[in-house]
Amino acid sequence: MFTGIIEAIGEIVEVIEGSEVIELRVRSELSSTFFINQSVAHNGVCLTVVDVADDIHTVQLVRETLSRSNFNKINAGDKVNLERSMPVDGRFEGHIVQGHVDATGQCQYIKDGILVFSFPEAYANLLVEKGSVCINGVSLTVASIAANSFSIALIPHTFEKTTFVNLKEGDFVNLEFDILAKYFTRMLAIKNQ
Q1: Which residues of 87-110 are buried (b: 16+ CB within 10 A; e: fewer)?
Q2: What residues does 81 pair with on adjacent strands?
C-alpha cells in the first residue's frame, strides 16, 4: 500500500522489450536502497524490484499493466514518480493508494496551478468534488468535475517536486480512483441486483 506522497523522481535509462514482459531500468537517488522483491510505485503503478545495481534498479511489467497504464508509451529518458510502500508504523500523509492503476487520462489544460484531465466515462461514479484521486502516483484532491474531465489545483511545491513539472497538454497519465469509492460502488451494485 502507498499514500501518494512522492519520495523521488527516477529516470528511465533503458526499456528492454521481451516477449512476455518489458523491463525498465530506472536510475534514482533511492535505487541503491531498494532490495529484490520490494514493492515500489512507479508513476502510481506498484512494481516489483527484480535487480539493483548501484543507482539503477530494474522492474518488470506484464501486458495487463501496459494495457492500463501510460507505460505503453514509456521511453528512455522519461521521468517517473517513485514511492516506496508504506511501513506499518508510518505516518499516513496522502490517501490509500494501492498501486493498481485503473485507466489512463489525458492532460487537457495546464495554467496557474490548475490542471484538467480527461478520464474514461466508466469511472465517473468514482470521482467526487474534494475527494481523492491518484495521478501518476501523486495523491491529489479533485477540485471540480465536468462530464468527462476533472480538475486539480496543484501547489507549486508539488508541481516542482514531481513529474508534473514536465507534463504537457496532450500527455497521458495514470489514474487510480479512490478504493473506498470502488468498494462502495460495488456494494451498491450487488445490493441493487
Answers
A1: eeeeeeebbbbebebbbbbebeeb
A2: 9
The enclosing H or E element of 66 equals helix 63-68
Average confidence score pLDDT of the chain: 94
CA torsion angle 71 72 77 83 (round to 10): 0
The residue range of the domain holding 31 is 8-84
**CB-side exposure of 133: number of CA atoms within 13 Å?**
32
137 sits in the region (left: phi over 0; alpha: psi -120 to 50; else beta) called left
Give the tens place of pLDDT for each residue, 112-123. Answer: 999 999 999 999
Q: Which residues contact 3 (CB under 8 A, 6 or more apart)?
A: 83, 86, 92, 93, 94, 95, 96, 97, 139
Q: Is residue 192 within 8 Å of residue 186, measured between CB atoms?
A: no
Of 52, 51, 55, 63, nearest in space to 22 by CA: 63
Say whether both 68 and 108 belong to one domain. Answer: no
Residue 49 has pLDDT above 90, yes or no: yes
Residue where the block lists cell 511501513: 87
> Based on the structure, what is the number of domains in the chain?
2
C-alpha 149/C-alpha 159 separation (Å) is 20
> Domain for residue 145, yes or no?
yes
Instruction: Name the residue among 65, 67, 32 with its Cα closest to residue 51.
Output: 32
